[in-house]
Input
Amino acid sequence: MPPENQASTERPVILGRVTSPRTIPGRRGGGGRARFTDPEERSRRIDARFDEAIAAIGDQVQISDSIHAADPQLVLVFEALDEQIDLSAVAASLGIEILIEAESAITPTDEFELVSDEPRNPYIGSCLHAVCANQTAFDNLLSLWRMWRATDGLPYGYSKLRELFAHLKDLRPWGPQDRLRAIDWDEYFAGHIDDRPQSIEIELWYRRSDQKRRQSQQEVTALVEQAGGQVTASAIIDQIGYHGLKCAVPNQVLRDLASGNHDAVRVVRSANVMYLRVSGQALPVVGPPTEAQGQIDGDLPTGDPVLCLLDGAPAANHPLLRGRVEVYDPDDLLEKATVDELRHGTWMSSVAVWGDRGLGEAPAVRPVLVRPILTPADDTENRIEELPAEELVPDLMWRAFRELFDGTDSRPAAGETIAIVNISVGDPAAPFETILSSWARIIDWLSYQYGVLIIVSAGNHQNLVLSPASSTEIAGLQGDDRRRAILDAIARQQNKRRLLAPAESVNAISVGAIHGDASRVDPLGYAVDPTDGLPAISPISPTGSGYRRSVKPDLAANGGRVFFRDGITAQDTISFAGLSALGPGIRVATPSQFRETHIAGTSPAAALVARRAARLHDVVSDITTGVSISTRQRASAIKALLAHGAAAPDHSEHDPVPGENTFGNGAATRDYADGCATNEAVVLFIGSIGANEEQELLFPLPDGLNVREAKRIEATLAWLTPVNWRHRQYRKAALSFVKPEGAIPKLGTPTGLSSDATTRGATTLQRQSWELQSTFASGQGSNMKVRVKCYEQAGGLLGERVDFAVALSLWVAPALNVDVYSQVRAQVRARVTIQPQG
Output
């Protein structure tokens, strides 16, 4: 009888064996990969930049005089290529303070090129050094630059500065354009009420001394009051280098900023200010409500919640949610909204409980905990749900986690059993560029501190610029031609369709959206499906990499299809909207008269992944019964199994945009909570590793593979890293695995992402897959081996061990008639050990 080829919970993921670690040599430094094509032209440009900085420090003198502040200062940004320079050695002698350093990677241009004609890595490393200098320190810097220009040398003790000058690509003062980032003012003002005070966040540069932090806050507060506003809240979080102010300002202040009248708003010109942000929320596309259909009762959940949503307050009495969600609302946000206004939290709770209602899946077996963080905004016409006007996001996140896991003086911990936190919320005023947002930094720190897997949505972009094409031209195309035209438009707009904070977080799983759902509705009338029914990345999902060019988003999941309306007049920009009560989109509960609606975006995509993570939590719990594992090992195991279920998309679903910038590690298609088929085995390894160590993972091989037929080997490594916000590398633990080896044929090029892509930057997730037809000359009693390596960076691990998990699998074609699962499980059971928790 041939083996069963369907997955079954009777064949769960297998817990594997981790060997004892062994020491390996540390990594060597890089450099010497790039050069300037015209060094003299580069130097002349830097000369001009110093001239601009002279004018900028004069502006700071005027601002300081207006509020009677002493010692005006300037923030200078040095952007250097292909270097690993530590400026701390010369900072004191120069009289400068290093505020932040951030790494990135860029492609060669006419100005600079790679030395090698056939480089393994096509990118050139770059680093942004932001430093604070007063007039004396600036004059010293300028003098040393001119000396280096004239002689190619500097006095003894300034070798690091000499290296910086040699690698310097650009120099500029940090100005209003940096502080305002990429605010879409038209979109912001479209929904806001003009005669109300407007809420803004001012993020200050985090200074190294209490005295300087107090001084900068006093100066900025004076400038806010000078503009007719007031500071309503402040927060300092040393662990992530955050200093923020929440302010209420007259609407005219934002009107002046939008028009570029920065002379009227001195606070945006202050050297103390890192960013000035308006409030907002990256909302999903929403359709009209419809009557609830299909199963609405089902078995009620049991046990404790393991998934918590940080979202809006849900309509917990909705028939689809009653008895299935638990609400912990210490800020009483429920009282600030009518039932009909409890939209976003109801939608996300519905996805977490039911998934896409159009699929008819069974509800979650555990209750879902919701901790509201969104509330209807009084200064918006439609009372859009946003973060509370008086809250600073990093402070709110930290408080929410303390309430969940530590408790307060008056309340016990509200979420001691929580292992997964979902944040389907994004900040449209904080698209990721080079510097990690404070929101991303705080959830990275919290994820590691509490050993919790955080899942975030990548952000939504509801409009797409088609130019030079038009909506009518796109609508006139069919099939792959239309899909390709839409993808071409996305590629042209990549710079303006970045991840939205906190999606660049390195410890979190960031989720993009696929243009797919369970609805079967076809576009009618003027409605147009942008891909004409073909699979693709969603046109509202962001594109772009994470910190230091790491793969982001990490995964993609169905986010619902979207249509646009092609009117009588051709448009060069299209907007995606919910046009019908029948869909398309992810079908969810909606508070309006306890009905349902269809939504689309990365918010439901992330909630779908979080729902799967909650199921995988129970798998990990079951297979580690009787074994003590840490919360970080548990989170890493769930993370590894989530990503292991990803499938690489066809190139037609994202080209010409790179797959790593759209689907990340792949589409979340396989749920290993459903178990394995007989022709495959998934082994989960859980361990702990130190700096400059290597651990070997052994996967026992089955008999019957000595036939040429399709086989697939897949490996996924996941971990949570401690972070050092002061260091340019940020991630302190750099783990990776070596291509599987041992008693298997030599593996070739992996399918999907390359090894360089999956290990680049500050990732905490590596997934690769190999397909082969070769025969295996060995069977039972022999092993496939994977070696996991750990290197320290960003100031080092200081002896701390890092918990990790690896999912390793072998699949063979059903035609081989091999019961892989039973053979692998029997061999593993005879030798399972697990390292103690880190």
Q: What stands out?
A: The chain has a mean pLDDT of 92. The CA atoms of residues 719 and 804 lie 5 Å apart.
